[in-house]
Write a structure and sequence with these properties.
Elements (H helix, E strand, L loop, with lengths): L2 E5 L6 E5 L2 E3 L2 E3 L5 H8 L7 E8 L3 E7 L6 E7 L1 E8 L10 E7 L5 E4 L3 E7 L3 E8 L8 E3 L21 H4 L12
Antiparallel strand pairs: 1-2, 2-10, 3-4, 5-12, 6-11, 6-13, 7-10, 7-12, 8-9, 8-11
């Protein structure tokens, strides 16, 4: 096996740690292997879109989700470091409204599996970070929603240095009480 899978406090959200082969020349690892991912996680999925973003320190992106065409996301960082968060928006789930946060970095090479039905976001904790993610559905801007990053009912412990840098859609996001959620 070329990866280790760990369940988080929300069992459907998974930390994926690849086996890294390195020497004085550098390193190699498989960032994704479909059959192994399915065998180790029990998640049968196919990815249809890859995204790549670059952000400066204290940029907070999210918490994003799509009400129709929900996206599962396999996320990782290839430069720098982020604190990555998934919030369960499945109203029938025992972990509805709960969140889990994981540090992802180029150094630790961890990935996070965020299933459909979750809001997702991150804050950059290094000078810059490059963030890559695979999605199970394409982006549909008309169905995209943002959950308020500082919603007091969520109590997310963001590792911020002052106020975050936000997009307008994230600054004006809805609280969990106001948000459209999943059944």
């Amino acid at each position: 096996m070329t990866m280790n899978v760990t369940r988080t406090a929300i069992p459907d959200v998974l930390v994926i740690e690849p086996k890294v082969f390195g020497d004085d020349r550098g390193f190699f690892y498989e960032s994704f292997n479909g059959p192994e991912f399915e065998a180790l996680t029990g998640v049968k999925t196919s990815f249809v879109q890859d995204n790549h973003s670059r952000s400066a320190r204290n940029v907070l992106r999210g918490l994003h989700y799509q009400v129709r065409h929900p996206q599962g996301k396999l996320v990782r960082v290839v430069m720098g470091e982020v604190f990555d968060v998934a919030v369960d928006l499945r109203s029938s789930s025992p972990t509805f409204g709960k969140w889990v946060g994981v540090t992802l970095s180029a150094a630790n090479k961890r990935q996070l599996w965020v299933p459909e039905g979750f809001a997702h976001g991150f804050v950059v904790t290094s000078d810059y970070a490059e963030f890559l993610y695979k999605t199970t559905d394409t982006w549909h801007p008309e169905h995209e929603r943002s959950l308020l990053w500082r919603d007091s009912t969520l109590h997310i412990d963001w590792p911020l240095q002052g106020e975050p840098l936000l997009a307008a859609k994230d600054a004006g996001a809805k609280t969990l009480r106001e948000a459209e959620v999943f059944a």
